[in-house]
Amino acid sequence: MRNETIGIVTETKGDLALVKPMTHLNCDSGHCCQGEDVLKVILEMNNEINARVGDKIVFEAKQVGMLSVAFMLFALPLILITLGAMTGYYLSGKLAVAANTAAIVGGVAAFLVAAVVIKGFDRFVATNKSLRPVIKRIL
């Protein structure tokens, strides 16, 4: 299924265009199906057909593996925190530190690692041009 949406080009920057989404092609209403607040969003997308400011266009949003995004944001931190707490608890006997303290320190350290991994993933998605929506045609 193609995820095509209608929008208006508000600005162009070389091979990129800033587009204000309006409505889905199969939507009968005058607002975006995802809620009226989406109308305030401006999306940066690839402008392969050289649309100009003010053009009403159809663009296709690519599906970015929502399962992997959900895993990175929700499951990965929980898994790392659990492993960090278990590692801290295990090492507490060898380091002669209270088990609870070592588990907390291990969990916090693993949380910081998860935050760095998520930030790196965010930068990757933001800078990867192949993941941006693409303008398909001018209406």
From TrEMBL:
Bilayer-crossing regions: 66-91, 97-118
Coiled coil: none
InterPro entries in alphabetical order: SigmaE_reg_RseC_MucC
Record keywords, A-Z: Membrane, Transmembrane, Transmembrane helix
Name under which the protein is recorded: Positive regulator of sigma(E), RseC/MucC
